[in-house]
Every structure is written in C-alpha cells, then in structure tokens.
C-alpha cells in the first residue's frame, strides 16, 4: 500500500512538473515572438509599456480584460495615427506592462497609474478610447483623474457591475492569489490552447475570429502565467469601483460617445449602452450589427466614432482659445 501511494505521488509530481515546464517554455516562446514595440515608464513599482506614434491632437487607447495594446494596432491605431498623436497603453499587468502581485488592481488604482503616465507625456486632456474593461477604466479616469480626460469614445464598454461572471470568464474568477499563481503555472496555458476555439468563438461571435489574431492581435500574449494572474486579479477587482462609477453617469459633461454591437456575447448593449444613455441623454450611442471585439472586426465604425468625438473635443478647445 505504501509503495502504491509513493508511485501515485511521484506520478502527480511528474505531471505537475511537466505542466510547469510546458508553461515556462510556452511563455518563453511567446516573449521571444512578441517583443515590446514601444517604450517603458516606471510608475509606483509598475513598469508600464506604451506606444506613442503620430502627430496632432492626442488620442489615448486602453484595451480590455486579458488583452494588450496590440488589440488596437491590428487596424485601428494605424489609421488614427495618420493625423493624430496616438498613445496605446498596456494596462498594468497586461501585455508587456508589469504589476507587482501586491499592487491594487481596482479601476481607480489603474486610473491613477495611467494618469501619471499621461501627465508625464504632457497630454492635455486627450480623447480617451476604452474597449470593454478599458471602457470601465476610462470612465473611472473621467471621474477620478478628470484633468487627464477631455472626451470619451468607448467601444463595447463595461459600464455596470455584474453579480455573475460570464461563462467564458469563469475559469479566471479565482479569489485566492495563491490559486491564481498555481493555476497560472500549471493548467492555464494548456487549457487555453485546448479551449481556444470555444473561448474566442464566444468573445468574437457572432463575427468570425481573424485567422491571425494570435499574431497581429496579440492573442498569444495571454498564454503567460503573469498575464493569467493579472487578468484573474482584474476580474476579481472590477466590482470594487463599478457601483460608484455607475451613479455618476448623469454628471458627464465632456464629449461622450459609445459604440456597441447588438450581437455582443460578453456584455449587453441594453444594460451597458442604453442603460448609460438613460442616465446621460447627451451620450452619442451607436449600435451596429457585430460582436464584442469591434476594434478588430469593425474598424470602420470604430474609427468614425473616435474621429467624431475627437472633432468635438478639439473644436471645442479651439473655440475656447
């Protein structure tokens, strides 16, 4: 009996060791294949990666949960950079940005970090574009770091707290930091690879997943254990600030636009879009046929919204001068 137990333990140890080795090798391959393309700034123990390109009125772009700034460089950012200064930011812990495990991941904490970056870059209340969770972060910035936000152009944003986690994200809804680390270094990468088609089908659906999303869209960056840990932490922290944000929509006075897909399978345009419109009648809400990943699948209406909001923001500034 003792011999049998020893064999079982050895098999389990070997299995876990194999998972850790696989994860480490996968992360190393991803890092080598997708090196940073921008610059870094040290902010409160965090190393924030950003890309600053183009000239003209400034537009800051903030990606969503588990994403990276590459979600915007797929098509959208290049278009805007023709006549705007476009700053793409990897949120703390995402993409190539780092965040210590003991650092706060609340929306207000991330907003404070991004505000310090924007002030260091001497941006004068730029247009802030946020996708999904990046939309919630953009709203938090508008309320808590108002000197850094001159207008909001949000794409499929999270705008209301959720009592239940969407099915596609239940695997990262891990309350224990220790368990996030363990799962990140063992099961996360292989399960992500095995479940890729199902997960991306839900995130992108009803639209097709771009064939090269893992490469051009930065999807492969999510296979690293540090990214898994940060994404799970973001998920578990979002409701800390969301209720307070929701109560303030009626006070938004800056140019404010929002684009939503009626077929979004992650968020609900009726709650997260029309629900805000009910509180903020001045919101320029645009509904189209599409899913959640509109910056990649629907760059034309995204660009149109951003340019229209930017025109309102900067024409107002010129008039004030």
Please give a handful of descriptors for the protein shown.
321 residues; alpha/beta; 8-stranded mixed beta sheet
Describe this structure in words.
The protein has 321 residues and is α/β, with parallel strands linked by helices. It has one domain: Rossmann fold (3-Layer(aba) Sandwich). Helix content is 47%, strand content 14%. The protein is built from 14 helices and eight strands. It has helices at residues 2-33, 70-73, 76-80, 107-120, 133-144, 177-185, 188-194, 196-204, 213-216, 225-237, 242-246, 269-279, 294-297, 299-320, and strands spanning 39-43, 46-53, 58-62, 85-89, 127-131, 151-155, 256-261, 284-288. Helix 4 (107-120) packs across helix 5 (133-144) and helix 6 packs antiparallel against helix 10. The protein is globular. The termini are far apart.
According to CATH, what is the class?
A: Alpha Beta
What is the residue-mean pLDDT, rounded to a whole number? 92
Q: What fraction, in percent, of the residue positions are helical?
A: 40-55%
- Envelope shape: globular
Structural class call reads alpha/beta
CATH superfamily: Alpha/Beta hydrolase fold, catalytic domain
Tell me what the CATH architecture is: 3-Layer(aba) Sandwich
Distance between the termini: 85 Å
Query: Using only CA atoms, what is the Rg?
Result: 20 Å
Q: If strands are numbered along the chain, what order do they take across the biggest sheet? A: 1-2-4-3-5-6-7-8
The major sheet is characterized as:
8 strands, mixed
Q: Uncertain regions: pLDDT < 50 for 5+ in a row? A: none
């Amino acid at each position: 009996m003792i011999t049998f137990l020893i064999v079982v333990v050895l098999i389990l140890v070997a299995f876990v060791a194999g998972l850790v080795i696989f994860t480490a090798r996968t992360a190393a391959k991803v890092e080598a294949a997708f090196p940073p393309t921008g610059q870094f700034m040290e902010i409160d123990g965090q190393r924030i990666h950003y890309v600053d390109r183009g000239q003209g009125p400034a537009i800051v772009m903030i990606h969503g949960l588990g994403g990276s700034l590459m979600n915007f460089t797929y098509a959208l950012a290049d278009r805007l950079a023709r006549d705007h200064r476009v700053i793409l930011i990897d949120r703390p812990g995402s993409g190539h940005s780092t965040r210590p495990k003991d650092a706060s991941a609340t929306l207000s904490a991330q907003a404070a970090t991004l505000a310090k970056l924007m002030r260091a870059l001497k941006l004068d209340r730029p247009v802030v574009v946020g996708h999904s969770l990046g939309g919630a972060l953009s709203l938090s910035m508008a309320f808590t770091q108002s000197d850094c936000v001159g207008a909001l152009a949000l794409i499929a944003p999270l705008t209301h707290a959720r009592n239940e986690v969407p099915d596609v994200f239940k695997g990262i809804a891990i309350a224990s930091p220790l368990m996030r680390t363990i799962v990140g270094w063992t099961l996360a990468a292989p399960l992500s690879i095995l479940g890729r088609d199902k997960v991306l089908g839900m995130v992108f659906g009803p639209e097709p997943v771009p064939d090269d999303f893992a490469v051009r869209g930065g999807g492969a960056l999510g296979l690293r254990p540090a990214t898994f840990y940060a994404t799970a932490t973001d998920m578990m922290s979002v409701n800390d600030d969301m209720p307070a944000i929701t109560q303030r929509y009626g006070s938004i006075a800056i140019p404010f636009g929002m684009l939503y897909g009626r077929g979004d399978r992650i968020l609900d345009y009726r709650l997260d879009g029309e629900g805000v419109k009910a509180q903020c009648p001045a919101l320029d809400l645009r509904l189209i046929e599409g899913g959640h990943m509109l910056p990649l699948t629907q760059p034309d209406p995204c660009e149109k919204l951003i340019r229209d909001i930017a025109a309102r923001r900067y024409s107002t500034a010129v008039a004030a001068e």
